[in-house]
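can u pls check wat happens w/ manganese (II) ion
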Amino acid sequence: MTTSYDPKPEHKFTFGLWTVGNKGSDPFGAEVRDPKSPVDLLYLLAEVGAYGVNFHDNDLIPIDSTPEEIGTIKENFKKALKDTGLVVPMATTNLFYDPIFRDGAFTSNDAYVRNYALQKTMKSMDLGVEMGAEVFVFWGGREGTETDASKDPVESIKRMRDAINFLCEYALDQQYALKFALEAKPNEPRGDLYNATTGHMLGFISTLDHPEMVGVNPEVAHEHMAGLNFSHGVAQAIDAGKLFHIDLNDQVFGRYDQDLRFGAANLKSAFFLVKLLEDHHYSGSRHFDAHAYRTEDQEGVKDFARGCMRTYLILKEKADRFNHDAEIQGLLGELNKMDNDLLQFKGPYSQTKAQALKAYPFDRKSRSMKGLRYELLDQLTNEVLLGVR
Ligand code: GLT
Ligand code: MN
Ligand code: MN
């Protein structure tokens, strides 16, 4: 392998403990890889060249740990962070695995469960901040229904809002420099999840008491499961100043949640995504929320992790090529050229402009006949990707 695609700290490549720690079980089959401790996983991540690690509370601290055990785990983890130089940019709460969350956490019908979820999240925020996290993710894997007979969806959205508002106040009260990032998914493990896409989340955020503290954590696979163009959702988040974090992976359209290695299924969409992030100078973590195929052993897990980062860097180089390709840029420049005559309409609204625009003699038919050269543009894009330009 060439060394020019080696990951560096400035690339901000991160992995969740649950990603490289995934043991390969699925709904039809048992685990195929031995469990690794959080400390072992830090050394694995350091070996492959990652910059940081993220975790759920229970990835690090098993749910039934005693205070003594918690102390030892934290101490060992901090030591390994120091030894490996890895940082913890993001933390989150597991509000989906334990059976208590089988009908949701913040949106459960049971106030007992909703309050327990708040308690668990506050403790998880304390832990994340202690380890250095600046972004806190909320993925509501159980916040949904199998039957809408069970809940009024408006009430569920309100419950979700109450929880996020409460936790924003808690962060402010504790003077935590934490930003929240909400992660959408259309379904799985529930039949249907609330706030199913990044677009839904962006709408929801504007209804919160502290919208400035809350952004999104879009995931490639989740938007693909909904049949959406991921880059378009991410663009909306960028435009709104809300792209606080991102989960990179891959997913064949129309399938179950696959969490594949970045670029494994849709290279071209991955290219446009990397180009979008780089063109718009996204400065947050590039987090790979994926796992190795079930066929892999520990070496395969490393191949998987290295592959995610390497593909990102190769696509970044391709984006640079695209941006400097004279023919491509010539076509784009031509497409965006404005007729001199139209310069009079540029800039903000005025009554005079509106009147002049209403009176302007547009030649609709001749403009409609003009070819746009998108066939050529797309072919040139393919050729950049295929390495012949
Ligand atoms: C889980 C899920 C991911 C979320 C993680 C954070 S956990 O693996 O599939 O998409 O980002 O809670
Ligand atoms: Mn995710
Ligand atoms: Mn996923």
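Strands lie at 13-16, 52-56, 90-92, 135-139, 144-145, 179-183, 192-193, 214-216, 247-248, 286-288.
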